[in-house]
Every structure is written in C-alpha cells, then in structure tokens.
C-alpha cells in the first residue's frame, strides 16, 4: 500500500452504559464506524487500545479493498460519555491519541437547540447529540427514539423547540432483569419471535421483551402525539434500531449513525479553528 497525504480526521466517540461507538469524519463526512462493549472498569491505556483497534481495523479494510491510500488518522476528537467515572479516562486517552484535548459534550457548549426544559444541564450528552443531528435534518414536530441501556424519547414541538422527553428501561436491560430475577429463565436473543404467543420459554420471553418493547413504544408515541396535538416524524437510533423501527405501528425511520453525526455537528459549532 502506497501512502500519500490525506485530510486529517475528527474522531467521534459515544460512550454509553452498554456500548461505545466510534466514527471517523474526514472532510466532514462520516467514514468507518465501530462498536465495542463498555466495560465496568477502564484505564487510559485500555481506552487507547480501543481507539487503536478501531484505527487498525480501518487500515485492514483499506488493504483488503486494495485502496492505495492509508486511511486518515484523527487529529482531533469529540466525546460524549454518560459514565461519569470514564469521562476523564477517555479525555486523557483521546488527548494522547490525537495530540490535543478532545471537545467534551456538556454544559456550556453551543448546541443551537431551543429548549423548554426545567434544567438543561441534566440532559445527557448523547441526548443532546441526537437532537442536534435530528434538528439539522427535520422540522418539528419530531420524536427521536434512542435505544440503549435506557430507551429515550426526545420530543420537539411544531416550532422546533425541545419540550422534554421520556426515559424508560431499555430492551437489553429488560431481558437481563427478567433472566436475573427468575432462576429458570435464560438470557434470550433479542429478536422478534415468529408469533406473539410463544410456543416455548425462549419464544415467550422474546415476545414479552421484544414485542413488549414495541407495544410500549407505540403506546408512548400515541400519548406524545395526543399531547402535541399533531403527528410527529419519528426517528429511531441506537441498538436494534432498524429491527424495532420495522415492527412499530407508527411510521418510523431508522438511523444508526444519528448520535455520531450530532457529535460532529457539535464539534463544528464549538471547536475553534
């Protein structure tokens, strides 16, 4: 592979309670993405190894594809982290990898999001990123559904103002809680069963967990629609976004890179050139 100069990249890192997602933006466009499990404990060196694994995979893919240019390496980074103990760990790791302190999403950043919320500082950085990306592409009314450890619904009214949201236990959390609380129940694969009435224990659990989540989301969307007085655009992101969006009674579009794109937009709005 013959290397020649490439544009510098911006690494977006979204650290959730269950998974951590990486995306590299080159010239403003999102290229490769990668997802890893979020561990219970993390050191700076381990965080740097995760970044290195992502960048190494990009080089491997370029080699397999026969691309004659080495992929761009990140010269800067933007971080969203909902695990308080990991914020400084990731800040140090990204500074070591990129050569400068990353932009950390939190209070004080310019978002461009108009809000009617009692305490904006309480809103998680991933929720902010979702709103920023969605509002750049859609007008209100709008509901962003983010599926992760928690299921978050962010609601934007017809005037494009964020008016609040809903936070509920997530799909995987429900499945683990069910298996942990009942000794004879297994941990099941999170997919829709052939029928709602399960013919065995696993199918019955999948119906309760997966189809139960679908029914809950449809019910919550009905309540939001009634309170807004209009039909919102529904965008679903996060783990299993495409599968759940397809099962909903409401029209919904899946967008699994929404949070990463929102982080990059926050980077562009806040990082001094």
TrEMBL record:
Keywords: ATP-binding, Coenzyme A biosynthesis, Cytoplasm, Kinase, Metal-binding, Nucleotide-binding, Potassium, Transferase. A monovalent cation. Ammonium or potassium. Its cofactor is K(+); NH4(+). GO terms for molecular function: pantothenate kinase activity. Its EC number is 2.7.1.33. InterPro entries: ATPase_NBD, Type_III_PanK. Substrate binds at residues 117, 124-127, 201. Pfam families: Pan_kinase. Pathway: Cofactor biosynthesis; coenzyme A biosynthesis; CoA from (R)-pantothenate: step 1/5. It is an enzyme of class 2 (transferase). Catalyzes the phosphorylation of pantothenate (Pan), the first step in CoA biosynthesis. This is Type III pantothenate kinase. It comes from Gordonibacter faecis. The gene is coaX.
């Amino acid at each position: 592979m013959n290397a020649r100069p490439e544009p510098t990249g911006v690494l977006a890192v979204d650290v959730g309670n269950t998974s951590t997602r990486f995306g590299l933006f080159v010239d403003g466009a999102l290229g490769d993405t990668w997802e890893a499990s979020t561990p219970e404990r993390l050191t700076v060196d381990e965080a740097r190894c995760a970044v290195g694994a992502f960048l190494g995979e990009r080089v491997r893919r370029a080699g397999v594809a026969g691309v004659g240019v080495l992929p761009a390496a990140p010269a800067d980074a933007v971080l969203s982290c909902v695990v308080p103990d990991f914020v400084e760990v990731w800040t140090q790791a990204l500074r070591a990898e990129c050569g400068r302190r990353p932009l950390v999403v939190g209070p004080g950043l310019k978002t461009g999001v108009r809000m009617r919320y009692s305490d904006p500082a309480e809103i998680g950085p991933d929720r902010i990123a979702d709103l920023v990306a969605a509002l750049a592409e859609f007008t209100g009314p709008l509901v962003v559904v983010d599926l992760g450890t928690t299921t978050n619904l962010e609601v934007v009214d017809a005037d494009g103002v964020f008016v609040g949201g809903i936070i509920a236990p997530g799909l995987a959390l429900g499945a683990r809680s069910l298996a942990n609380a009942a000794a004879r129940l297994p941990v099941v694969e999170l997919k829709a069963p052939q029928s709602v009435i399960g013919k065995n224990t696993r199918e019955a659990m999948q119906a309760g967990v997966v189809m139960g989540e679908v029914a809950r989301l449809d019910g919550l969307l009905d309540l939001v629609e009634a309170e807004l007085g209009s039909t919102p655009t529904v965008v679903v992101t996060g783990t299993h976004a495409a599968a759940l969006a397809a099962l909903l009674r409401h029209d919904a579009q899946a967008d699994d890179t929404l949070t990463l794109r929102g982080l990059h937009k926050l980077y562009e709005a806040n990082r001094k050139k």
